[in-house]
UniProtKB/TrEMBL annotation:
Gene source species: Rhynchospora breviuscula
PROSITE patterns in the record: NAD_G3PDH (PS00957)
Similarity comment text for this entry: Belongs to the NAD-dependent glycerol-3-phosphate dehydrogenase family.
Keyword terms of this UniProt record: Chloroplast, Lipid biosynthesis, Lipid metabolism, NAD, Oxidoreductase, Phospholipid biosynthesis, Phospholipid metabolism, Plastid, Transit peptide
Boundaries of every Glycerol-3-phosphate dehydrogenase NAD-dependent N-terminal domain copy: 103-262
One GO term of the biological process aspect: phospholipid biosynthetic process
Domain Glycerol-3-phosphate dehydrogenase NAD-dependent C-terminal: 282-422
This protein's name: Glycerol-3-phosphate dehydrogenase [NAD(+)]
Amino acid sequence: MAAMPFSDRLVFFSAAAAPPNPKTKTKTKTLFLRSPPSLLLPCPCSSRSLHPDPYPYPYPEDSSSSSTRTRRAVRIAWEKLLRWSRSWRSRNNTPDLLQRTSKVVVLGGGSFATAIAAHLASNKPQMEVSMLLRDHRLCRSINATHVNTKYFPRHNLPQNILATTSAKDALAAADFCFHAVPVQFSSSFLQSISQYVHPKLPFISLSKGLELNTLRMMSQLIPKALANPRQPFVVLSGPSFAVELIDKLPTAMVVASKDKKLARAVQQLLASPHLRISTSSDVTGVEIAGALKNVLAIAAGIVEGMELGNNCMAALVAQGCSEIRWLATKMGAKATTLSGLSGSGDIMLTCFVNLSRNRTVGLRLGAGEKLENILSSMSQVAEGVSTAGAVIALAQKYHVKMPVLTAVARIIDNELTPNKAVLELMSLPQVEEV
């Protein structure tokens, strides 16, 4: 007798499987379907032992129909995401900040300052974007040719960018101020222009690092230098090379402020089809991650320069990420911030891509060059060099062990060679991962 299909085979019905009815006398009967004994499952209520089904699981579905259902599920999930996006935008529709902004000022003329100025100017051609510079020659060049010949000689800047060396002219009637001066020069610079700064002018910090002598973050340094503890403050950070931002390649960053309304305003000001901006209230986490990743990038460069391999690179960066998390959370940061754009995102970019200035410093150190020769040949500041010492001071203050970042600080201070640092790090006790 030919076997029936698996889906049509009902093994048995047994009256013994149902609870007995005391009012009804019934005989226990067991019914078997027409199927060979070899294909029947054992009856749990019978002492008779039957052969097990050779394929006790449902037969696989047709692969083509399964693939079609999977594609349909993916399409539906994507459509739901787009519907959610449209719904969220309609519920959170706020007046366009760009319509109410007539002027922004950018303090500094470096690569990232120029890229941000170009981005803001492109977002609204009618808005004045004023760049405050110290270099008179560069100032004249930008105004005459609309090119920053020092950093972007092949990029034409928008016509609504105006460069000036006058702090009074630059800051007059400004709605927002973007601070892109290197951290170690920020205090003296801000003090020199403080008389022209309106007490309610929002400052958006683009500078990453810690002031070496005071261990201050930019959120502490800017109000202190301006002698105004209530100066509105926002920090902008995340994985972003200036050249890719000015080339309008897709980029994502985060703005953090204690004032959520101000953070949303800066988000509106910066957001564009090629720049995605998230908001955060964790100013400490965003700033500490942005500062310490520069020191870690030097360590990554040293590993590359010494040709220690990919295993070593992965282990070092993972250890460095843990050290940043230990210190940041001790200082009050959220662990989730350190796994976001300003944490893991910025660390990956700075540690693994050759465009990173700090990584370049480490690479040349690992190859045997002297620090003073490296720095004298660079046209831009590598913040990680000066930040390293401040990081170690913070680690001591908060009682956090940071072997990798401490090794970087000792190499920079010429107290340890890269080779000796590697040997000592590899000889540390092998403990439980935390």
